[in-house]
């Protein structure tokens, strides 16, 4: 069934049913990635614009591969080599590109709300690949897919987000998505890196990592944005590592069969030690692989392709 909205702007307010549809569809897409020929014709004839106004490695490559796996035509846009450098506005840029007959736009932008703004300018489907400190819904969905793949469920899991919660779009999307699916969510970080009145998100809030780790199933570690140190958000990397870095000694506080996750890029030796990042309980690389499957599912579901003429091609 189609999703309730023809865009994916964030996970706040998205229903459990829609999230479940995306995760269920991603199972079929994940199977495609295990085939010798990792390509199906499901989006043949659909043109997708990757509109990135911020640097990106994993998200951009993941979306581009997802589009190509589904046989979509892909156009990559980089602000640094476009008419944006000549003063062209976002609105004029996208309207001119859409006039070349685009069907879907994947957008990453430094300004919160930019994907919503595009829905007011364009007829294309809009997918948010990260907007400012607002949301990053596809990252949260691939995180949830990875958790569900391991545990078989999301409801009842205890998930802890550690790090710069205040500025993290990944944290916000994870909170909204996990809560919609019945998981218990907690956040932990220095008080300067927690949102004002963080409890209003409906999560447990900690400023001491050892307390926060008790009874947790999944630890999702967020990148420390080192530029925040220059703003005085925390005194030094060494102090942050001592108080909030995940190391081998702290793992004993977690539940059995615990999972370590990280959306990347990692600052090894700062928020996480190498032995944990590369350890047997780490699903960090699995997250990257699953990102393709989840983004394939989103592109497919938002494209408006009918079950009657396309599902057989996906499952074939």
How do the helices and strands line up, and which of them pair or pack?
Blueprint: H1 16-32, E1 47-52, H2 58-69, E2 73-78, H3 90-98, E3 104-109, H4 114-119, E4 125-131, H5 137-151, E5 158-162, H6 169-180, E6 184-188, E7 204-206, H7 209-212, E8 218-221, H8 227-230, H9 237-244, E9 259-261, H10 274-277, H11 284-302, H12 307-315
Parallel strand pairs: 1-2, 1-3, 3-4, 5-6, 5-8, 6-7, 8-9
Helix pairs in contact: 1-5, 1-11, 2-11, 5-6, 5-11
Report on this structure.
- The chain is α/β, with parallel strands linked by helices and 316 residues long.
- The relative contact order is 0.16.
- The protein has two domains: 134 residues, 3-Layer(aba) Sandwich (Rossmann fold), CATH 3.40.50.1370; 148 residues, Aspartate/ornithine carbamoyltransferase (Rossmann fold).
- About 3% of the residues have low confidence.
- Helix 5 packs across helix 6.
- The longest helix has 19 residues.
- The strands form two sheets. It has a five-stranded parallel beta sheet. A four-stranded parallel beta sheet has the order 2-1-3-4.
- The protein is built from twelve helices and nine strands.
Summed up:
This protein has 316 residues and is an alpha/beta fold. It is 38% helix and 14% strand. The model is unreliable at 306-313 (pLDDT under 50).
Features:
316 residues; alpha/beta; Rossmann fold; 2 domains; five-stranded parallel β-sheet; four-stranded parallel β-sheet; 12 helices; 9 strands; globular
The major β-sheet equals: 5 strands, parallel
The domain count comes to: 2
Order of SSEs? HEHEHEHEHEHEEHEHHEHHH
The class by helix and strand makeup works out as alpha/beta
Q: What is the level 1 CATH name of the largest domain?
A: Alpha Beta
How confident is the prediction overall: mean pLDDT? 92
Strand content: 5-15%
CATH architecture of the largest domain: 3-Layer(aba) Sandwich
Q: How many β-strands, per DSSP?
A: 9
Query: What's the helical proportion of residues?
Result: 25-40%
Number of helices: 12
Oligomer: single chain
Contiguous low-pLDDT stretches (5 residues minimum) are 306-313
Global morphology: globular
């Amino acid at each position: 069934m189609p999703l309730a909205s023809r865009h994916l702007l964030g996970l706040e307010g998205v229903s459990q049913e829609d999230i479940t549809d995306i995760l269920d569809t991603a199972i079929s897409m994940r199977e495609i990635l295990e085939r010798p020929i990792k390509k199906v014709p499901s989006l043949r004839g659909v043109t997708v614009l990757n509109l990135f106004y911020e640097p990106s490695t994993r998200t951009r490559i993941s979306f581009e591969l997802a589009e190509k796996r589904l046989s979509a035509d892909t156009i990559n846009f980089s602000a640094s080599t476009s008419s944006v450098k000549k003063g062209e506005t976002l609105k004029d840029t996208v309207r001119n590109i859409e006039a070349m007959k685009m069907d879907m736009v994947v957008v990453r932008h430094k300004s919160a709300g930019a994907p919503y703004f595009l829905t007011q300018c364009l007829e294309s489907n809009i997918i948010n690949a990260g907007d400012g400190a607002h949301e990053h819904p596809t990252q949260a969905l691939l995180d949830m897919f990875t958790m569900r793949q391991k545990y078989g469920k999301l409801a009842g899991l205890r998930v802890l987000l550690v790090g710069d919660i205040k500025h993290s779009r990944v944290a916000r999307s994870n909170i909204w998505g996990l809560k919609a699916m019945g998981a218990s969510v907690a956040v932990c970080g220095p008080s300067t890196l927690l949102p004002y009145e963080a409890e209003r998100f409906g999560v447990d809030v900690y400023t001491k990592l050892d307390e926060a780790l008790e009874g947790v199933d999944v630890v999702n570690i967020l990148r420390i944005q080192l530029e925040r140190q220059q703003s005085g958000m925390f005194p030094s990397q060494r102090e942050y590592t001592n108080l909030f870095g995940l190391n081998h000694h702290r793992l004993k506080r977690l539940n059995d069969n615990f999972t370590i996750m990280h959306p990347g890029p990692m600052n090894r030796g700062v928020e996480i030690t190498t032995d944990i990042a590369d350890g047997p309980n780490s699903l960090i690389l699995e997250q990257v692989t699953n990102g393709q499957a989840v983004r394939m599912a989103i592109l497919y579901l938002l494209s408006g392709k009918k079950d009657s003429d396309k599902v057989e091609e996906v499952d074939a």
